[in-house]
## 1
Amino acid sequence: MTGRSTHTFVCPECRRSIEVDDAMRATLLETGCVVCGAPVTEENVGETPAMS
């Protein structure tokens, strides 16, 4: 395993949901939703539960 975190992003405007890695999470927080351009906050990018 690589130990990389995954996060689930849900846009507050267009409601699109995608799984992202740490780098994409940072990009979303900086630039906004890649689909509609809405601002993104920490609340919109949560941790993805680990698979057991």
## 2
Amino acid sequence: MRIGFLFGYDIGVISGCLIMPDFIRRFGEVGANGQPFLSSSRQSIITSLLSAGTFVGALGQAFTSDRFGRRGSILIWSAIFTVGVAIQTGTEFSIVQLTIGSMDLFQGLVAIVPLYNGETAPKALRGTILVLYQLQIIIGLFLSYVLDLATHKIGNSASWRIPVGFQLLLGLVLLSGIFFLPESPRHLLGTDRRDEARSVIAKLNGVPEQDTLVDELVEELEFAIQAENEGGKATWAECFSTRNNLWKRTINGMMLQFIQQLNGQNFYYYYGDTFFESAGTELSPYVIQVILGGVSVVGTVPALHLIESWGRRKSLLTGALMEAGCSIIAGLVGHYTLAPAHTPKALLTKRNRAGGDTLIAFAVLHVFSFSIFWGPTPWVYLGESFPLRVRPKGIALGSATNWFWNFLLSFFAPRIAARIGPLILLIFFGMLLFGYVYVYLFIPETRGLTLEEVDEMYRAGIKPWHSTDWKPHLGEEAHQQAVKHLEARYEEKAPSPISP
């Protein structure tokens, strides 16, 4: 969970720094009037290169998590992150050093965490635990906004070095905690380390290693892993093969991440202050960020319950409709009622202010709805859709898709908004309607299934709209096989009866 918190903080902290005077003086340009300024191109480069680095890290974790294990991979990417933060914090005037530090490839961690949580969590709690990870991300984002608000009036480099450098402390705490993290039992069994797997399973279930529950779980996992891994070690190309419908799982994971990034919420996070300024609000951009961050935290809490009570499909379908409604209302109201950007507040009409209040209200509702539904659910789905042999690669492709489109959004959105203004929200409206249709036709329900049963459902070719009522057979077969093996083992160990 510390990883999620640190990731959220890493995303949010730089946005506040971009408008701090000392930051602009050090990393901006000098205008014709002799005053320093941070051009939109430099802002987009600094912001978008973070996504570019995370794109590389998301793919890179697929190699490290198989080679060094889930635990070892988390350690490697945590160390890379800490070094990147040190580079950022220590820079004086070099924008090159700043951007290199921001490309700390932290997403290697973000891709590993859904993988690790999906493999270690019980099926009844897997969705809730993955949503808790999302909640930690949002809390980290919120804290970064609060710290930016607290330091932005400092007149020297401490205004931005304190919030940026705070990540060093968080990174060191993360590194120290990794040594207490158990390895994934599925990875251990997949690499023929049965004794270690038994030890981890015992600890995760709070029972002695000799307990029959451990024997049963090991047998079930071995049976299921053998069934899902028939054919040997997978290649990247196999992620798109027709075998066991792997191509469907990979495309679904990538499409959910693509749709999530074009929900519109990140546009509010990155550039909402411009619209809110036109709406006539007296709030500063820092306060607006804190409000949006607080709404996101509150919105993620209900998801802890809904992800298991409603399931994945219903959450995505409901969220798509709610956010689409918010987008079209905010977009049309903003287009027809708001004054041009940077209009003095004294010149705003009653119609401008009423439209601005409506825009702000539906922007907040949009972010709130995203936090409940489309924020956590695609990550939950991504973490539970793939068989063991392709799981790191499948999750890597989904995570990389997320950050590829995050990069494009952060780079091009300000340019598009400069041309069409609030009508950019209609693009997100169209994407959300597309998302509703896509989820209905292609995304099956995975609530209450083990990772091996999810694999069985895909192999069985169950239609997504029938998946809610589908009952698995592999889990029962694996359980019966495990019981037979255990009974046979105990019979071999039992003493022979003494003849009279």
## 3
Amino acid sequence: MSYPGYPPQSGGYPPQAGGYPPQQGAYPPQAGGYPPAAGGYPPAAGGYPPAAGGYPPQAGGYPPQAGGYPPAAGGYPPAAGGYAPQAGGYPAPAGGFPPQAGGYPQQPGAGGYPSPSMPPAGELQDVNSIQQGGAQQGYPGGPAPGQPMPSYPGAPATNPSMPGYGSGVPSNPQAPAISKGYRGSIKDFPGADPLRDVEVLRKAMKGFGTDENAIIELLGNRSNKQRVPMVAAYKTTYGKDLVHDLKSELTGNFEKLVLAMMMSPAHFDAAELREAIKGAGTDEACLIEILSSRSNAEIREIAAIYKAEYGKSLEDAISGDTSGHFRRLLVSLCQGNRDERETVDIALAKQDAQKLYAAGENKVGTDESQFNAILCARSKPHLRAVFQEYQQMCGRDIEKSICREMSGNVEDGMVAVVRCIKNTPVYFAKRLHKAMEGAGTKDRTLIRIMVSRSEIDMLDIRQEYLKAYGKSLYTHISGDTSGDYKKLLLKLCGGSD
């Protein structure tokens, strides 16, 4: 074995003139090890004389082992700074390897036990400091230090008042969601050019009559980031406002759908929230739909646009138009501060499930504030674990408990949040079905969902729709709408299942 800074020597380390000066990060003198000697490691009284083949076994030193000099009891304890990198040896980064959350990496070996080449358990501390090639330390298959074994139920947090959120090992671990790739129905059109596209739009609207089919074919085959630049390109090319021209040429729901498609997602959401709040009535379902399904970054962008466009903060607008616990729920959601970590602490999930049970089913009256605090602040993966624990704890689905304990807008709001967190495509499939069932169609809801989800999860929504209602979303839209409006909606739907 050779060390950086130490030229290889046959037969060990013979005495050298001047010796080997101490190297930064190397092996400092330690009690029980190699005594310090002036200038390096020359032979010294009481030290280790050079011997053929290296250092002979010494009490407290490094006994010869296959594969190098692993630490032994009584040898060199880990020193600050770790061991210096060694060619062919076991390098370690500064400070050694700290314990890693989530347990030890899997290694070959039946049942997760260490392979025969690993040192005895008593040497674990030293082995952790010198793992080969920077690999994570520890024995494979085991849990993180201080965490329960994965096959047993998670123990309560060490300090329940300050739970280690997001650092536990689930007692019933869920398989991570498998990325299914792009799940939208509208994709970027290869080689799209906004300057050429606006020529098509101008030609479709110029003169007597309007070529709606040309507009449908163009907009139905462009993604949002390809449609939005058309507004600026149209004004640059023709000195006219595209939105104004579209309004003057189109009518009804087809006009509303086209205009919605010409806006960025955040601008469209801000406009929909404004429409839901202003006027005599309030579209509470729209408020909940947008605020419960958007990410933190999206909600903050919507709030910034709302303030810039309408001169009033989104929170103030909501507060002035709603009341009670429903107002608190919406204000909490519009902060955009939900935890977005993917890790789940099963011990905290159990605690939260108990808190929800104590605030509802196991109490005279209902503590809506506790529901608000948990449903609006916890991460979505964590809340899915909470809902599962709640079901196991009291034998009732969290949705049914909310319906039993609450009423009115706050009930609708809480249920919508729960459904959206459980399975977003299922939530939107239900929203679409409700918009089209019965006499009349809630066209604003239909337009909003078809436009906003067409580049996110429309393929998943179609699957859930077919599963829940026995006919495709495409078929339902075809039977419930008509004309150019239907044609463009079907473009957003992307096909039948």
## 4
Amino acid sequence: MLILELAFTDHPERLAARPAHRQLLARLHAEGRLVAAGPWADDSAAMLIFDVDRPGLDAIMEADPYYSTPGVRVHQVREWNPIVGPGAPEA
């Protein structure tokens, strides 16, 4: 799994692009490629958990203009190995 961390500013273009981005996230979740996503409580950043490989994440990000919208910065992409919950190995 991959964790995508975003950082935000209050740029008006980011807020305008957010509804379409969230529709894409809902589709990715329904397809099983997105485990969970959401902003921090103060809306300064967000975390998205994808069940894809790096080329898959790159394709998702390339297809969604939100990731290059003013006010959105990709802070970090990290590989994650859960031990419990979705994606964890069966005991």
